[in-house]
């Protein structure tokens, strides 16, 4: 059974989700989002309180937020209405990110999401060094290219950032998408390990943050630095987790 504080957090999550379902989506979108979900009510005419009570009943039966994760990912697919649901959806992602026990992988390994340009040379570094180094620390590691999903890739990235225990981001090449995603991760309070090949690629706004500088021909050094930094984050996480 969840503690009173945990239950209050769950109730807040479900309240935000109920608001999105009741007021943020067109009826056709709502029908799509709720298709095949275990809810027994008239989806077209239910009000915010009805959605909330149904969501809370579902949580109390399942003792899990897995169905909330599914609904959130479906809502993220309604990007044409993002201007309507965007702020509430961002809040929902943030609240969910504070519940790693409900959002982690099935074997409860720390989840690490990697941000880098979609270029073959970066994918090679990810596969040869970044992913195996983090996996050696018993982490579950993904890059957006690993996702097997029907969602738009940008929606997958937002979701994975929200559920990650920490982020690894390569700023090499000054890729604007990577910088935007780093900003999103920082807004959610995520720890970010920054990598770069050339310090000239570090913009002023994050120049004060530590970067692991590496060379593509010296990936063993990258592995050692990344392992040491990630190990420190994992120790801090275990010391602060009740």
- Helix/strand order, N-terminal first: HHHHHHEHEHEHEEH
- Cα(first) to Cα(last) distance is 16 Å
Task: Estimate the global geometry from the Cα principal axes.
Answer: elongated
CATH fold name of the largest domain, please? Rossmann fold
Structural class: alpha/beta
What portion of residues is helical? 55-70%
CATH class of the largest domain: Alpha Beta
Task: Describe the model.
Helix 1 (4-24) crosses helix 3, helix 1 packs antiparallel against helix 5 and helix 4 (66-76) runs antiparallel to helix 5 (82-97). The protein has a five-stranded parallel β-sheet, sandwiched between helices. The protein is 56% helix and 10% strand. The chain has ten helices and five strands; from the N terminus they run H-H-H-H-H-H-E-H-E-H-E-H-E-E-H. It has two domains: 4-102; 106-240, Rossmann fold (3-Layer(aba) Sandwich). It is an alpha/beta fold.
Summarize the structure.
The chain is of the alpha/beta class and 242 residues long.
């Amino acid at each position: 059974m969840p503690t009173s504080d945990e239950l209050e957090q769950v109730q807040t999550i479900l309240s935000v989700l109920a608001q999105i379902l009741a007021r943020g989506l067109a009826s056709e979108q709502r029908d799509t989002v709720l298709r095949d979900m275990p809810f027994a009510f008239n989806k077209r005419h239910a009000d915010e309180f009805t959605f909330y009570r149904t969501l809370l009943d579902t949580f109390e039966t399942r003792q899990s937020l897995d169905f909330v994760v599914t609904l959130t990912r479906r809502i993220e697919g309604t990007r044409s209405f993002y201007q309507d649901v965007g702020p509430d959806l961002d809040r929902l992602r943030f609240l969910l990110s504070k519940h790693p026990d409900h959002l982690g992988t099935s074997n409860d390994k720390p989840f690490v999401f990697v941000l880098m340009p979609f270029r073959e040379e970066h994918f090679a570094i990810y596969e040869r060094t970044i992913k195996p180094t983090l996996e050696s620390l018993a982490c579950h590691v993904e890059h957006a290219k690993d996702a097997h999903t029907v969602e738009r890739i940008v929606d997958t990235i937002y979701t994975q950032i929200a559920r990650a225990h920490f982020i690894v981001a390569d700023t090499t090449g000054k890729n604007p998408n990577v910088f935007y995603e780093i900003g999103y991760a920082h807004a959610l309070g995520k720890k970010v390990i920054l990598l770069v090949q050339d310090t000239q690629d570090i913009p002023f706004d994050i120049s004060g943050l530590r970067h692991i500088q590496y060379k593509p021909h010296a990936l063993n050094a990258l592995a050692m630095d990344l392992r040491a930094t990630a190990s420190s984050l994992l120790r801090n996480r275990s010391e602060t987790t009740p």
